[in-house]
Write a sequence for this structure.
């Protein structure tokens, strides 16, 4: 019986060495193979790839085990939703066509079993970080995408891969909880709750798994990442639970 909804984020496929990325990919395939028997829907909440750009006839090579398993889930009737993260914001039509996936640019508000969910990758939310918010707006602009598409894939993807080696994911350092007053996604959720109610907030981006009670009987769940922790969340119709994949 397919009655569960799964959430995961920040796989960063492609980051660090090929061997490490392939090992992570195999772990993800193992997890997807495990959930395919009871999954009704799968939400991948951004930074699935450490870099992604779709030219008109070219996409980044690799990830065939992972994409093949997603295709299998789609063929089984599992609804797949992909969120654009800060590393893979240049998703256009390829994954939608091949996986019958729904692509989400920013936030998604859902009603599930009588509960309201607010889902977002998490980048660019909350106070501060004006520099990144400016860069995000530029990178997502049609002008930037058109200019990047003019580069030969060998050059464009090569530039992106070199940039990726200096990213937060490539540093391989584990992150630590800063406290509710310093965690900007918690601050953002609390501010949004002053305007309207959500039962659950689900984010990625932070590379830290946590499940925290908020005012008004609301909860915020950060999904963590798959470089160290391999954490995800599952909704069974009555409760949302944060879990760790241990094959």
């Amino acid at each position: 019986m397919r009655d569960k909804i799964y959430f995961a984020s920040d796989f960063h496929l492609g980051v660090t060495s090929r061997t490490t990325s392939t090992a992570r990919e195999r772990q993800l395939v193992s997890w997807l193979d495990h959930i395919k028997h009871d999954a009704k829907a799968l939400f991948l909440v951004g930074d699935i790839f450490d870099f992604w750009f779709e030219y008109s006839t070219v996409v980044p090579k690799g990830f065939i085990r992972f994409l093949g398993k997603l295709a299998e889930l789609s063929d089984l009737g599992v609804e797949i939703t992909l969120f654009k993260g800060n590393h893979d914001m240049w998703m256009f039509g390829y994954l939608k066509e091949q996986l019958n996936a729904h692509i989400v640019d920013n936030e998604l508000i859902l009603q599930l079993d009588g509960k309201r969910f607010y889902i977002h990758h998490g980048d660019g939310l909350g106070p501060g970080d004006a520099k990144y918010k400016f860069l995000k707006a530029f990178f997502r602009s049609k002008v930037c995408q058109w200019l990047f598409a003019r580069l030969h894939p060998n050059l464009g993807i090569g530039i992106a891969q070199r940039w990726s080696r200096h990213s937060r994911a490539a540093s391989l350092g584990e992150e630590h909880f800063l406290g509710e007053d310093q965690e900007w996604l918690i601050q953002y959720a609390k501010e949004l709750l002053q305007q309207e109610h959500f039962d659950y907030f689900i984010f990625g981006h932070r590379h830290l798994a946590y499940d925290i009670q908020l005012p008004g009987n609301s909860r915020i769940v950060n999904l963590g990442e798959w470089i160290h922790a391999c954490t995800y969340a599952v909704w069974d119709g009555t409760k949302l639970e944060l879990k760790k994949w241990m094959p």
Summary: The two ends are 22 Å apart (CA to CA). Helices lie at 18-35, 64-75, 94-99, 130-139, 142-149, 153-164, 184-193.
